[in-house]
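Re: [ENG-882] Designed sequences occasionally contain unexpected residues at chain ends

Forwarding the minimal case from QA. Structure tokens:
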């Protein structure tokens, strides 16, 4: 993500500097007030479209990140409730609760690896999940209360499986690649066009560098939010870790 944003920053600054060089060789007639106004009008139209697309991409990436965050919170809450249901069932669920704790610990290690550069693995350990499911199904309720608790536990297991599958499906990038390419192309046109008609001085150069840095940061945020389990901006692991600590008690 940082590499892509850095390349975009260099490309935009290069487009501005190239426009500055083209400015030196343009005849005076091409730099008249009318010509400048026409270029500014055209660049303003492109800038408006670029702002709309940039806002759309930010909104889409933020929505993806918020959805994943909410699903992680739901998963943590359902795991805690499932452990409570098993505890209410009776002491015969001790083995099932231990397997649940092992499955949650394995999921935390996969989704939030200790090394920041390591990629998250949203594919659960099927053996742990199957063992936990078999243990629940082997429970033999003695009364209506235990039957209701077993049914509730089975329902929670299905819901947790759905959430896990949903997280796995949302691991795919949601940002449209053609839309991102169009955004970068328009940004290059904007920086080149405005630098052609801008007066060649240090103030305008600094303004273009600052603008390029801001746009690169925006694209960095878009790419980071679109990968909620990777990069610098990750979905926090505290909800699942807190649940894991409760299960260990």
């Amino acid at each position: 993500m940082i590499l892509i944003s850095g390349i975009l920053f260099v490309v935009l600054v290069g487009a501005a500097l190239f426009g500055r060089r083209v400015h030196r060789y343009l005849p005076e007639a091409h730099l008249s007030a009318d010509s400048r106004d026409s270029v500014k009008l055209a660049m303003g139209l492109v800038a408006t479209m670029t702002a709309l697309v940039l806002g759309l991409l930010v909104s889409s990436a933020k929505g993806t990140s918020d959805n994943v965050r909410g699903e992680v919170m739901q998963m943590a809450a359902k795991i805690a409730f499932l452990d409570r249901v098993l505890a209410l069932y009776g002491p015969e669920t001790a083995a099932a609760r231990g397997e649940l704790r092992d499955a949650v610990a394995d999921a935390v290690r996969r989704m939030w690896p200790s090394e920041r550069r390591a990629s998250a693995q949203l594919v659960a350990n099927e053996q742990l999940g199957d063992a936990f499911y078999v243990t629940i199904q082997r429970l033999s309720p003695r009364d209506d209360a235990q039957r209701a608790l077993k049914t509730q536990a089975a329902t929670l297991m299905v819901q947790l499986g759905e959430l896990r599958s949903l997280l796995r499906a949302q691991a795919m990038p949601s940002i449209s690649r053609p839309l991102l390419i169009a955004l970068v192309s328009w940004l290059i046109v904007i920086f080149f066009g405005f630098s052609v008609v801008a007066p060649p001085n240090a103030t305008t150069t600094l303004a273009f560098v600052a603008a390029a840095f801001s746009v690169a940061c925006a694209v960095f945020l878009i790419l980071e939010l679109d990968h909620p389990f990777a990069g610098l901006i990750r979905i926090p692991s505290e909800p699942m870790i807190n649940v894991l600590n409760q299960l260990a008690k």
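QA comment: On inspection the terminal residues look reasonable. The longest helix spans residues 33-89. Proposing we downgrade this to a documentation issue.
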